[in-house]
Write a sequence for this structure.
């Protein structure tokens, strides 16, 4: 990304829950009364980083909090509550050892999906925040976040058959990260939720800080 990279400092901002690094969206496509972006939210020193797609898909255009409002967002939040990462009010929860963000943080009008150029324009912001958080476990939700995380933060993207039902709730070697892809909740079938809960319970019970980046089998 060269000169287009974004530099972030974690000093004096880690006590902020929403947008702890003070990111400013590079564009605003919304009406004056609408939310410009849904920024990263949670513990800036977290070991677990859940990565969604964009606000219109996984929620937050009203609350400003990722994984709220939509059915898919609520399904992810329910799993995280069961595992005690999430407490308190659903629309403004308290997070423990967890950070939530989107690969495309900007809101768009009338339910529009981001274009390829808009995703590309926000890539450097997402990358800078991800590296500032420096979580041990990355949990991308859905096809685009999973594709991006596997491509940019592992050496495995071209070696794997990109099939979300197969990748779901399995570990993939990362360049300094453990990656556990999550199938989009809108596509979950019998057993998908339980598989995700079981995988996260297993990671929490392990010494995952010592196994950061270690590969395990897929499938």
């Amino acid at each position: 990304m060269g000169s287009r990279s974004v530099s972030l400092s974690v000093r004096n901002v880690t006590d902020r829950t929403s947008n702890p690094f003070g990111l400013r969206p590079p564009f605003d496509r919304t009406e004056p009364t609408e939310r410009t972006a849904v920024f990263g939210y949670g513990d800036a020193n977290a070991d677990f980083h859940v990565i969604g797609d964009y606000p219109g898909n996984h929620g937050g255009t009203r609350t400003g909090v990722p994984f709220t409002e939509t059915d898919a967002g609520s399904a992810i939040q329910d799993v995280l509550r069961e595992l005690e990462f999430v407490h308190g009010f659903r629309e403004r929860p308290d997070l423990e050892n967890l950070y939530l963000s989107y690969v495309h943080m900007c809101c768009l009008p009338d339910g529009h999906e981001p274009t390829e150029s808009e995703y590309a324009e926000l890539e450097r912001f997402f990358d800078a925040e991800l590296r500032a958080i420096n979580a041990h476990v990355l949990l991308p939700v859905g096809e685009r976040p999973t594709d991006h995380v596997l491509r940019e933060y592992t050496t495995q993207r071209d070696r794997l058959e990109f099939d979300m039902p197969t990748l779901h709730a399995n570990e993939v070697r990362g360049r300094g990260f453990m990656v556990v892809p999550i199938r989009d909740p809108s596509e979950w079938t019998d057993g998908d939720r339980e598989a995700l809960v079981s995988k996260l319970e297993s990671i929490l019970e392990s010494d995952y800080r010592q196994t950061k980046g270690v590969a395990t089998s897929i499938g």
Remarks:
- Residues 9-13, 213-219 have pLDDT under 50 and may be disordered.
